[in-house]
């Protein structure tokens, strides 16, 4: 466990140390400690490379995708776990099958469909792309969670006169808040860290997400590694903060479908 922890923490400490160095310090000795603690590279990466605009793009897209994923995923999870309708089992198996299809397999038809519908290089197009990519995972976890709720709860609500929508809104959503929080955090991390889908959808520079913008720094400032490391830290800080504050919820989300009952 100590070795695993060290292998995880060392790259972050190394990046932080490099970001504190000047270009000359890094060229002379990349592994030595920085002479002084300074945020000059982080500030320059933020101000001169458009990372502020990219951060806004990432926040908008991530928030929109997570909201849509939670809405559709919770509704589908409720339907698959508590409702009876024709083809329910087969539809759920289709969702599970979609989990096994890597995005690289559908990249070409995906790109053509977005182009034909005019959704390329738009925030809404990227939100829909993330929703389609991560919805099977969301449905699987929400179905697993809602399956633990006794069917008698739904039957009692129906006896009291609640409609299906009323059961979902008044009972399932409040009961599902822990799972929704866990799945929302996981999806936010997936969307925030994505490079491939965003790079494919967002064609213009001003629409880039943060991770794509940081990746572009490596080519734009290939001889200034400390500046690139500063950009990496800017992109990583929100993710690190989420992990530190929501460790329990992330763990619960990962293990949500491991057991039943």
Automatic annotation (TrEMBL):
The keyword Membrane applies. It holds the Pfam family BPD_transp_1. It is found in: Cell membrane. Residues 55-246 form the ABC transmembrane type-1 domain. The keyword Transmembrane helix applies. One of its GO terms (cellular component) is plasma membrane. It is a multi-pass membrane protein. The chain crosses the membrane at residues 56-78, 90-111, 123-142, 179-202, 225-246. Keywords: Cell membrane, Membrane, Transmembrane, Transmembrane helix, Transport. PROSITE patterns: ABC_TM1. SUPFAM superfamilies: MetI-like. GO terms for biological process: transmembrane transport. Belongs to the binding-protein-dependent transport system permease family. This is Carbohydrate ABC transporter permease. It comes from Kribbella turkmenica. The lineage of its organism: Bacteria, Bacillati, Actinomycetota, Actinomycetes, Propionibacteriales.
């Amino acid at each position: 466990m100590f070795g695993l922890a060290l292998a995880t923490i060392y790259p972050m400490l190394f990046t932080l140390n490099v970001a504190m160095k000047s270009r000359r310090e890094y060229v002379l000795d990349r592994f030595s400690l920085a002479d002084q603690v300074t945020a000059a590279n982080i500030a320059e990466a933020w101000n001169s490379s458009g990372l502020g605009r990219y951060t806004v793009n990432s926040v908008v897209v991530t928030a929109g995708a997570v909201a849509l994923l939670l809405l559709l995923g919770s509704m589908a999870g409720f339907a698959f776990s508590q409702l009876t309708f024709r083809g329910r089992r087969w539809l759920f198996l289709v969702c599970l099958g979609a989990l096994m299809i890597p995005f690289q397999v559908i990249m070409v038809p995906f790109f053509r469909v977005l182009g034909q519908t005019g959704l390329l290089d738009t925030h809404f197009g990227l939100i829909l792309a993330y929703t389609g990519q991560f919805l099977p995972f969301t449905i699987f976890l929400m179905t697993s969670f809602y399956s633990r709720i006794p069917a008698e709860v739904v039957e009692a609500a129906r006896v009291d006169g609640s409609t299906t929508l009323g059961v979902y809104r008044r009972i399932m959503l409040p009961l599902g808040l822990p799972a929704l929080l866990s799945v929302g955090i996981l999806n936010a991390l997936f969307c925030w860290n994505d490079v491939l889908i965003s790079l494919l959808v967002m064609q213009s520079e001003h629409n880039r997400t943060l991770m794509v913008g940081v990746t572009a720094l490596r080519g734009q400032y290939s001889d200034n590694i400390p500046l690139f490391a500063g950009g990496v830290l800017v992109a990583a800080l929100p993710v690190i903060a989420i992990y530190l504050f929501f460790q329990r919820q992330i763990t619960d989300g990962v293990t949500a479908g491991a057991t039943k009952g």
